[in-house]
Amino acid sequence: MVRLRTKIMIGDEMNKYYALNYIGQINKSYREYIDKALVKEGVEGLAISDGNVIAALYSHGSGMTMKEIAIKVHRTKSTISQLVEKLEKSGYVYKQKHHTDKRSTVVVLTEKGMMLKPIFSKISTDVIDRFFDGFSDEMIEELMKALEKIMTNLSE
Description:
Blueprint: H1 13-40, H2 48-60, E1 64-65, H3 66-73, H4 77-89, E2 93-97, E3 105-109, H5 111-114, H6 117-131, H7 137-155
Antiparallel strand pairs: 1-3, 2-3
C-alpha cells in the first residue's frame, strides 16, 4: 500500500501539486491491484485497457462496432483496433462484418472471453469495496463532485 508523506492543506500551492500527485498514485495503485487480482485468478497477459473492451462487450450483451467500443471506453478507434487485434489473437474476441452495414466490423466475445465475466465481476466488486472502504455515502458524493469538477476543468 502506498503511503503519502505529505498532508494536504487547503490553499497551499505545493499541496495542490501533491493533490495531483495523489491522483497519479491512486491510478498506479489501482492498475497494480487489478493486475495482481487477474494473475491471482489465473488470467495473465491482459491489461486494464483489454479488460475495458471486454467489459464493454459484456455490458452491451452482443457484438459492438469498433466505434461503439471506442465511445464506451473513451478511447480512439485506432487504439480500440489495436486492443481488439490483441484480444483476437488471444482468443477472447472475434470480428465479423456488421449484418446490415458491410463497411463496419463487429467485435464479438468468444466462449473464452465470456468465461472471464465472473472473474471480472468479482475483481470489480473487490476493487470498489477496497477503494471506498471507510467512506460514508456523503464522502463518496463529495469525492464524485470533486472529480467531476476536475474533469470539467481539464476538458475546457
